[in-house]
Fold:
Amino acid sequence: MVFLFISEIISKRPKMKDKVQNQSYLRSINQRTILGYLRRESMSCTDLAKRMKLSKTAIAKISEELVSFGILVRRESSVQEVGRRPIMLDINPEAGALLVFNLAGRTATGIVADLAGNIICRKGFDINGKIDVTMLEDLISAVKQKHLELAPSLKPLAVCVSTPGKIHPQTGYFILAHQFAGYKDINLRKIFSAHFECELLIHNDIKLALEGERLFGSLLEGVNNALLLHIGYSVGSALMINQKIYGGSNGFAGELTNFSLSALEEEGEPFFPGGSNTFDAISMEGIMRAIRHRTGKNMALDEAVEAYAGGDPSVCEVFERATAIWARTVRNMTEFLDIEAVIISGDITRFGTGFADAIESYVNSSLRHQSIRVFNSELSNESIIFGAINTAITSALNHLLNKLHEK
Structure:
């Protein structure tokens, strides 16, 4: 009986292999935590020890491995304290390169950045009409050339492509993409994979924009749940739930583009001439089409903005009607999702803050049990770039840590 009891105790004791695995797991968690802090700011071992509630010796040991592997660098602080200057830890910018391609907006942009997120170079191609495969190949070639000229020693660690539209999660082909010519035959993963051997990330531009606003802007400080509404050439939207960008089962969560507007029709009249009965009908493209129809003038966007500021009755009527539709839409989403804030981006912001102010006023007067704040984007199109660089950094650091732990 005693023998059986002792055998049972021995069998329940952690095996040496389990201990090693647990130690390796904890080491990985601590290293990722350290990198998370250092992505926001430089810190000393003492600062990290206080944040992580570990000893300075433990932090020094954990970080030493990251320094030896080239993920982190040490440097002397520029701030003089009592005694000698503390030694600070930073993400090593020389550990590798990140390549970011933004295919949204009126300019297709390619960027080379280092692992610390510093932009080394930027190359832009004006989009006249729609993006085709030739333009994509030209942009890739131009960015690769700039990379070789300015940072040849930095090996590409991750490529992040920001694109409008919906991509099928299995096939990689577009389901919908107004900005691309012949979009049904375009596969971004195949095109970019032919040029780069590192990790390739392809993300929706509006979701990356919301990530950029969340991390690098000030509008979402203290906000847990928010909507980003983009009204430009087409309509896009993204959701932040509990401070995380929500993608849903297939990455399409939060998208309003193809929602039907039939339930909002007044007396059976179409909202805007020549457009489909979806939210794309009241994109800036749809609004401009209606302005041209009402005024009888072939106005450009700049001219419409100027006419609106000058109080042109036809332009104001179209703009105000579109605003009313969007206000009711945001009101319904606010009640359904219980969000706290809405960020407006895209060409609609060229008309000033009136659009955002009108939506905020309507929603808050309609839903008395809750209130929201509505802002024009703080970072504009740069929010996409910031979100894409951050996503590329996350992927690159994960790749480097995995290589470190394989040793």
Observations:
- The chain has twelve helices and 15 strands.
- The two ends are 45 Å apart (CA to CA).
